[in-house]
Amino acid sequence: MENSRIVIDGTSLTCARVVRVSREDVTVVMAAEGVERARRAWVTAREVSAARPVYGRTTGVGANRVVDVEWEDADAHGLRLLRSHAAGAGPLVAPEIVRAMLTVRLNQIAAGGSGVEPGVLQALADVLNLGLLPPVPAYGAIGTGDLTALASTALCLLGERDWLADPDGTRRPGPGYRLRSPDALAFISSNAATLGEAALAVADLRELLRASTVVAALSHFAVRGSEEPYAQPVQDACPHPGQAEAAAAMRALLAFDRPAPMRIQDPYGYRAFPQVHGPALEAAAYAEEVVTREINAAAENPLVDVAGRTVWHNGNFHTAYVGLALDAARAALFQTMALAAARLGTLAEPAFTGLYPFQGATEASSGIMILEYVAHSCLADVRRLATPAALGSAVLSRGVEEHAGFSTQSARATTDAVAAYRLGLGCELVAAVRALRMQGRAPSGGPLRSAYDMAGAVLDPRVEDRPLDADIAAAADLLPGLARLHP
To answer: How confident is the model at residue 400 (pLDDT cuts 50, 70, 90)?
Structure first.
């Protein structure tokens, strides 16, 4: 079936396709134009390096860039480079991130700027299709090239390391490819692991932000909030795009019911939702735009210029755009999650729900009391992870590589922040649905009714005091489905 195939052509990879290759049972297929683009770059790289010095092909790397590789040592030079750089540390990263890395590197090489021999494209596609993984430790990159991760991949291709068989982690031989020595640096000089993780994180973030609006609307309905803050004239008066998008979605979700508001003015969790959620929508969209541009770029150093029949030594390997965009997205995520925690607080208040405190079965029951603790624990982690990774830097390789943006750490922090946010938002969903059940109310139609029914079919209806951990987990699992109901 066509939808079970992902075609890699070097120009049209999306974050959504990275997600599919990383998490679904799909077949990766190389487009002929991508292979041809890679072939022309490979021919050009060989011709140029035969005529003049080319970094990493005819010279050492880093501070050793001034050292020429003697012709009689050329075959050994690349292998030494791969062995010396395959030195990551710590636990192995998640299999889905490794698959994302392989997908991105495949697409980058097909973009035609690396000069790596094109035969490696089918070898990497075979690895993905067979469900094999190179061992990739968590520590070893700072946003200027995932050298350790890709050197480990190269050693697997060369047969010096075994592939890991996903999902059980057993080691076994797999497809091999004899990378030529001049291609060693060209293969590993990439941020594919960082970009792969970033692609997964921003796709998940955008999905959760859509789900957030649906959950906020359920809470709004449960507390009989006012719709005035979402009115079109309010948005026209302060026309930020993300704010307008959030308000329009709330209007659409609440359109089937017009209960009289219980208060002349609601707390910020409802009244300022468009103004706080809007920046998160914009930040996440911008981050996805940046990551998408990067995963389809020939951001290679040296960059092989086929049309100009030359190579350019440059700084496109530096992923400052990615790190800064992800840093901004996490800061915005903290703000919108703080509002979710605030709405959860109102759902525990009798003045807002008309129920016993904490939605208890009796006046003395604890009910959903613990959900606030869990949500604020998650919020604390999001706050911690919102610290900008770009505030750090590094001076390496005898001073010639004197800056780093730490986009790798920014991508990892975004993955972790999204995971915490998912659980915190799940707490709000549990409380909103429970409040409506206890009130004997439900949205009358539209996507909000569908959301309520979807949650009601899964969440435990019992209101007596009991452990709520399974409820939180089930609610968190529902969020992708709720995201699809976003208007």
So the answer is: low
Question: CA 480, CA 425: separation in Å to the nearest integer?
Answer: 12
Are 129 and 31 in contact, with CB atoms under 8 Å apart? no
Q: Do residues 176 and 220 share a domain? A: no
Band of residue 72 on the pLDDT scale cut at 50, 70, 90:
very low
Q: What one-character DSSP code corresponds to residue 59?
A: B
Is beta strand 132-133 parallel, antiparallel or unpaired with respect to 27-30? unpaired
Q: CB–CB of 479/204 below 8 Å?
A: no
Query: What is d(CA 189, CA 318) in angstroms, rounded to the nearest whole number?
Result: 11
Residue 74 sits in the same domain as residue 168: yes
* CA pair distance 44, 303, nearest whole angstrom: 11
Read off the amino acid at residue 67.
V
CB–CB of 117/42 below 8 Å? yes
Give the pTM: 0.95
Whole-angstrom distance, CA of residue 184 vs CA of residue 152? 12
The strand pairing partners of 172, in sequence order, are 163
CB within 8 Å of 68: residues ≥ 6 apart = 53, 58, 59
CA distances from 99 to 151, 194, 332, 357 (A): 15, 12, 28, 47
The total number of residues written for the chain in this structure: 487
**Statement to judge: residues 64 and 211 lie in one domain:** no
**CA separation, residue 44 to residues 49, 66, 303, 439, 457 (Å):** 9, 22, 11, 71, 60
58 vs 71: CA distance, rounded Å? 8
Residue 78 confidence (pLDDT) = 81
In a domain, 255, yes or no: yes
Mean pLDDT of all residues in 282-290: 98
Q: How many helices (DSSP H) and strands (DSSP E) are in the chain?
A: 18, 9
Q: Are strands 310-312 and 170-172 parallel, antiparallel or unpaired?
A: unpaired
Paired tokens of 189: 């000089």
**Separation between Cα atoms, residue 414 and residue 143, nearest integer Å:** 14
CA–CA dist 420, 378 (Å, integer)? 5
Does residue 310 lie in a domain region?
A: no
Beta-bridged to residue 321, according to DSSP, are none
